Structure to design on (429 residues):
């Protein structure tokens, strides 16, 4: 066989491998992807207090039922938040006034969580429109690979990346070659041109995403909360990332270029689960966006469609609290389901987005959660999703909440961002 043919064959095999691995990530085997096989179930009652009293008003929801539901999620799903800190120290690491071809002011703000400059810290990368005449509404979200992957900008600080035990080196600086590799998920210029700010943080700054019995990241600040015998309701990594988002909001509230009262919390996938929990625990977030968050996020656990509670707790034992494992293959015993997580954001705006090929995340279950949170929005004279019928692909539905299912796979695309910007223009006024 000549070299040309060999290369064609190699490319074909490589392409098939990519396809196969993409399919297997999107739909691992041994799980249900058939709507007809979704089990029968009854959702826990959103508008019934623990003593059986029906919730009939917004004030009853706010005073009694909301705190009950929040406490249930804390106890059984995400766990308690890390303690609060006496103070945050912040330092401007850099500022460029003509970033993104002159469209934006780009800053890196380092937030120290202790008095030690080499202790736990996070860098917030913030873009705000250069043309703004006052503080702007802003999107805040964690990123997976480091702030330097958002834009191919040689000046953005390279983060330190921690590796799971057994992988060397344990801590290494991110690579120059990765700059801008995630720019497609973070269309900073489009966001800034629409008049919004964009703030993002590498999630590993807050808690590296592997199970180390809660020793590294911010957990290093609280030695009494580490180890396998920590309380069964102690928060896992999602609670830690959520805590980091709230600390970032503390900083944005004091920022002169951002309007801290108009901040949208955004997250994709595991970080979408995180943005929903941030919206639930921190009522300062005015808009909560879940992009393809799936199991443990927007999707209803009782549907057991795609990823299940047992699978997520097994593969990612550090994300939720230990109590959550009681519901492995036992979803009906959970005192909550995830429509109640979305309801915790009401009457603030919520946006749930799904992707057609992302069956692992159960698009229909994500939409149904938003639909079943509707009665709480109604208590506040807000309109939830008008119907529990799946909207057409690429046809967003925007009321006081937003939903879309778009063409394509598990990802964040400019279509997603276009909808978030349109929706934020209405809801972050
Ligand atoms: C998957 C996980 C999902 C989702 C995703 C991600 O492996 O099963 O729950 O969170 O990772 O965060 O990319």
């Amino acid at each position: 066989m000549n070299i040309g043919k060999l290369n064609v064959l190699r490319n074909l095999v490589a392409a098939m491998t990519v396809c196969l691995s993409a399919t297997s990530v999107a739909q691992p085997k041994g799980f249900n992807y058939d709507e007809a096989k979704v089990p029968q179930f009854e959702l826990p009652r959103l508008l019934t207090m623990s003593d059986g009293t029906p919730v009939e008003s917004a004030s009853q929801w706010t005073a009694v039922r909301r705190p009950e539901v929040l406490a249930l999620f804390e106890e059984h799903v995400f766990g308690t938040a890390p303690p609060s800190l006496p103070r945050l120290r912040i330092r401007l690491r850099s500022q460029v006034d003509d970033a993104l071809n002159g469209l934006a002011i780009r800053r890196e703000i380092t937030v120290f969580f202790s008095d030690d400059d080499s202790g736990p810290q996070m860098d917030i990368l913030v873009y705000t429109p250069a043309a703004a005449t006052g503080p702007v509404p802003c999107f805040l979200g964690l990123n997976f690979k480091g702030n330097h992957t958002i834009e191919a900008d040689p000046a953005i600080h390279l983060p330190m990346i921690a590796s799971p035990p057994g992988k060397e080196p344990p801590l290494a600086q991110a690579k120059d070659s990765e700059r801008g590799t995630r720019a497609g998920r973070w269309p900073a210029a489009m966001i800034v041109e629409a008049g919004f700010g964009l703030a993002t943080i590498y999630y590993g700054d807050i808690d590296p995403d592997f199970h180390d019995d809660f020793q590294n990241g911010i957990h290093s600040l609280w030695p009494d909360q580490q180890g396998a015998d920590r309380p069964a309701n102690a928060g896992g990594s999602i609670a830690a990332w959520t805590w980091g988002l709230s600390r970032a909001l503390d900083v944005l509230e004091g920022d002169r270029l951002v309007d801290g009262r108009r901040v949208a919390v955004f997250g994709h996938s595991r970080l979408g689960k995180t943005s929903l929990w941030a919206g639930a625990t921190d009522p300062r977030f005015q808009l909560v966006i879940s992009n393809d968050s799936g199991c443990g996020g927007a999707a209803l656990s009782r549907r057991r469609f795609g990823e299940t509670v047992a699978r997520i707790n097994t593969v990612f034992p550090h994300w939720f609290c230990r109590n959550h494992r009681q519901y492995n293959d036992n979803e009906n015993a959970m005192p909550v389901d995830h429509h109640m997580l979305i309801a915790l954001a009401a009457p603030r705006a919520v946006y749930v987005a799904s992707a057609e090929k992302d069956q692992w995340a159960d698009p229909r279950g994500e939409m149904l959660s938003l639909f079943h949170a509707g009665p709480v929005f109604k208590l506040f004279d807000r309109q939830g999703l008008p119907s529990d019928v799946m909207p057409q692909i690429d046809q967003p539905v925007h009321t006081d909440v937003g939903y879309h299912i778009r063409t394509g796979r598990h990802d964040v695309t400019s279509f997603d961002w276009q909808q978030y910007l349109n929706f934020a223009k209405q809801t972050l006024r």
Observations:
- Residues 89-262 form one domain.
- Residues 269-270, 294-295, 307, 312 surround beta-D-galactopyranuronic acid (CB under 6 Å).
